[in-house]
Design goal:
Layout lengths: L6 E9 L7 H5 L4 E9 H8 L10 E4 L10 E6 L5 E5 L4 E5 L7 E4 L4 E7 L4 E6 L4 E6 L5 E6 L9 H9 L12 H4 L9 E2 L11 E2 L21 H12 L12 H12 L7 H4 L6 H12 L17 E2 L10 E2 L22 H5 L12 H13 L1
Helix pairs in contact: 3-6, 5-6, 8-10
């Protein structure tokens, strides 16, 4: 209404790269917090009207609390009186906050709620539940469930890939439901941020979150290449990175681990940016492929996966002094900058020139350009 300032309202998660994934820190949202973010439109307009970007703050409202996370908040809708409704996809709930209230009301929905529709004339809230193929209809005032509307037949037995996909988006796998696999690996890819998750057997050494696209063909796993079995990596991620499974989690047994393995193994690598643009037939790409082979790049990035089972000294040390890292696959590398374990290189050309990776800075500028084009085609 006219009494409230026009604003944009979004939901999102905030990852604290400096926080170690210990149970105590996860339990109060210190690793990943779930928030409702209100940004006045005047701030957005002010920022867009200046030469340099102005900081945009708005107000943050925590959707989770200690012992009760609100993993993977998704769709949001605002009533005329200011009530906020949020779909909590990761924990299969919908939340309501009244104007000025410091608390929220949460009730269960079908599995994987993502979108909301509010019909204020009928006092109804409709919640689209992705993994149930259903719509949960609620009384918008009391949040009492009115009925469940099925959008298709109930599948009696789901495939391993389908079950694994559901688990991938299920925040209940983590301690108190704060985050899911998807929270860090967005739709199987990566947020591009750092996370201190004991993946290399140490805390205080945050590393870039790796993409999982194409991961089924890029053993071993973890930055130090310590795990040669994807299922063991999945177990380690659930028990150490996520401190789970949580109290409300589905049972995690061998079938669930196999399901997650099947889902992750079904994810293809991202296409190279030039391939996606149908520009991979450039002469520079062919020349760059020759540079790649002649300069010895295949020693660490072996076709066809452009990865390696070994770890190498790449000239950098992490905070614990470790200097051997397993090289990630180069498939889709143009779609996932910045680069290196700590995001120190912003662009592919910076990897080669600014950080002289594999002595690439000694190459002529024309060969550097060709090599970058080849990498963008992978």
């Amino acid at each position: 209404d006219n009494e409230r300032e026009p604003s944009v309202v979004i939901t999102h998660q905030i990852l604290n790269a400096a926080s170690s994934t210990t149970r105590s820190i996860i339990s109060w949202g210190g690793v990943i917090s779930n928030t409702l973010h209100t940004i006045p439109i005047r701030q957005l307009l002010k920022s867009s009207s200046t030469q340099s970007a102005e900081p945009i703050h708005g107000s943050l409202f925590p959707l989770g609390r200690e012992g009760q996370g609100a993993g993977d908040p998704s769709g949001v809708v605002i009533a005329k009186d200011g009530r906020s409704y949020v779909a909590l996809r990761g924990v299969s709930e919908v939340a309501m906050r009244r104007p000025g209230s410091r608390t929220i009301t949460r009730v269960p929905t079908g599995r994987g709620p993502t979108q909301l529709l509010l019909n204020e004339g009928r006092n109804r809230l409709f919640v689209l539940c992705t993994f149930d193929d259903s719509i949960s209809e609620f009384d918008a005032e009391s949040l009492e469930l009115v009925r469940t509307i099925r959008l298709g037949p109930i599948v009696p037995v789901k495939s391993f890939v389908q079950s694994g996909e559901e688990l991938f988006y299920d925040s209940r796998l983590s301690l108190d439901g704060w985050f899911s696999c998807h929270s860090c690996h967005s739709d199987g890819h990566s947020t591009g941020q750092l996370n201190d998750n004991f993946g290399d057997e140490s805390f205080g050494t945050p590393k870039r979150i790796l993409t999982l696209l194409g991961t089924g063909d890029t053993e071993p796993w973890a930055w130090n290449g310590s795990l040669i079995d994807l299922r063991n990596q999945i177990r380690k991620s659930i028990h150490l990175t996520m401190a789970g499974p949580g109290k409300q989690s589905p049972t995690i047994g061998e079938r669930e681990i196999e399901s997650l393995d099947s889902f992750l193994s079904s994810l293809p690598p991202a296409p190279g940016i030039l391939t996606a643009r149908d520009e991979a037939d450039r002469p520079s790409v062919r020349r760059g492929q020759q540079v790649f082979a002649s300069h010895g790049c295949t020693g660490c990035h072996q076709p066809p996966s452009f990865a390696s089972p070994l770890s190498f000294d790449v000239g950098f040390r992490d905070e614990a002094g470790k200097r051997y890292f397993n090289p990630p696959s180069l498939l889709g590398v143009s779609q996932r900058g910045p680069y290196f374990h700590d995001n120190r290189a912003a662009r592919l050309v910076d990897v080669l020139l600014e950080f002289d990776h594999a002595d690439a800075a000694s190459l002529p500028d024309t060969e550097i350009d060709d090599l970058v084009d080849f990498l963008k085609s992978l």
